[in-house]
């Protein structure tokens, strides 16, 4: 059942988009001195060596972070993301890529707490190894959907959540929405991020409709496509849906997305940057 391992896909275009958004959200959330609870429902191993067999088998990072490695953008937020990834590498060469747990750890402060869920036995061990050393970090080998709802409302009264399942279980598309609605009912002011793959566009259309009809307000969507939708093979695009986003996020992504498409997915690429539901 639990066959998905992100080590085959680390640093690909989907990771670039996901972590670009995540970094901006966390950077904004940690400006205030007030404590923050960060919750990652599907953490994976947390850190990846790109020379390892899994990454080399697919080499998906070559279509993602490698294309940005020497790039200098006119947009500070994109440059900051690139520099963040470089900070995890000892030299100027691209050798390692951080997963969302390590990116979150970079931003979390002494007063914050990080909650990281992972069910895959091997990745759980790696996650525990990669995230050890900080008393404010909690790694749990439990179902992240259930774990998220159980942590809300947080004692800090501030929460930033990443819901990032592999979607190898087809029900995950519906489970994501149901879990988000439950979480929002328990803590409506949290910032919630959902990552999704576009393998079957109808599933994403249904997810969007469910969120629009949910009654939640202030929902934004950012999607990066490397090629047109197809039923023939695999993932052609991925996206991030953000509920209660930082106030400048869409403005920034409106500016960055055309550049990102040009770098990662020309000539057939496309992007979306939309306000699905108003505030």
Write up this protein.
- The chain is an alpha/beta fold and 279 residues long.
- The chain has a single domain, classed as Vaccinia Virus protein VP39 (Rossmann fold), CATH 3.40.50.
- The chain is built from 10 helices and 10 strands.
- The strands form 2 sheets. The chain has an 8-stranded mixed beta sheet with strand order 5-4-1-6-7-9-8-10, sandwiched between helices.
- Strand 4, helix 6 (121-130) and strand 5 (137-140) form a beta-alpha-beta unit.
- Helix 7 packs parallel to helix 8 (172-186).
- It is globular and about 45 Å long.
- It starts with 12 loop residues before the first helix and ends with a strand.
- The model has no long low-confidence stretch (mean pLDDT 94).
In terms of topology, how is this protein built?
Elements: H1 13-29, E1 37-40, E2 47-49, H2 53-58, H3 65-68, H4 76-86, E3 96-98, H5 100-107, E4 113-117, H6 121-130, E5 137-140, H7 144-150, E6 159-163, H8 172-186, E7 191-198, H9 201-212, E8 219-225, E9 237-243, H10 249-264, E10 270-277
Helix pairs in contact: 1-5, 7-8, 8-9
Considering the chains and any ligands shown, give keywords for the structure.
279 residues, 8-stranded mixed sheet, Rossmann fold, alpha/beta
Question: How is this structure best summarized?
Answer:
By secondary structure, this protein is α/β, with parallel strands linked by helices. 38% of the residues lie in helices and 19% in strands. It has a single domain (6-277), classed as Rossmann fold (3-Layer(aba) Sandwich).
């Amino acid at each position: 059942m639990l066959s998905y391992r992100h080590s085959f896909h680390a640093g690909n275009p989907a990771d670039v988009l996901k972590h670009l958004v995540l970094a901006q959200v966390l950077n904004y959330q940690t400006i205030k001195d007030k404590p923050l609870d960060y919750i990652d429902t599907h953490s994976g191993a947390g850190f990846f060596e790109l020379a390892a067999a899994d990454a080399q088998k697919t080499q998906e990072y070559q279509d993602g972070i490698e294309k940005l490695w020497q790039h200098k953008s006119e947009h500070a937020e994109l440059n900051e993301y690139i520099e963040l990834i470089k900070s995890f590498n000892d030299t100027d060469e691209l050798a390692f890529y951080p997963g969302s747990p390590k990116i979150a750890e970079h931003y979390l402060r002494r007063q914050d707490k990080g909650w990281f869920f992972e069910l895959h036995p091997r990745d759980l061990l790696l996650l525990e190894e990669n995230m050890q050393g900080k008393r404010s970090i909690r790694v749990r080998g439990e179902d992240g959907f259930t774990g998220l709802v159980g942590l809300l409302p947080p004692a800090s009264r501030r929460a930033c959540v990443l819901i990032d399942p592999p979607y190898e279980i087809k029900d995950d598309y519906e489970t994501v929405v149901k879990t988000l609605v439950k979480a929002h009912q328990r803590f409506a002011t949290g910032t919630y991020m959902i990552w999704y793959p576009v393998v079957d566009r109808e599933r994403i259309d249904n997810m969007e409709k469910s969120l629009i009809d949910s009654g939640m307000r202030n929902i934004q969507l950012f999607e990066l496509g490397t090629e047109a939708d197809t039923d023939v093979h695999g993932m052609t695009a991925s996206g991030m849906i953000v509920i209660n986003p930082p106030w400048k996020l869409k403005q920034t992504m409106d500016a960055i997305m055309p550049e990102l498409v040009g770098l990662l997915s020309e000539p057939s690429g496309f992007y979306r940057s939309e306000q699905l539901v108003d505030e």
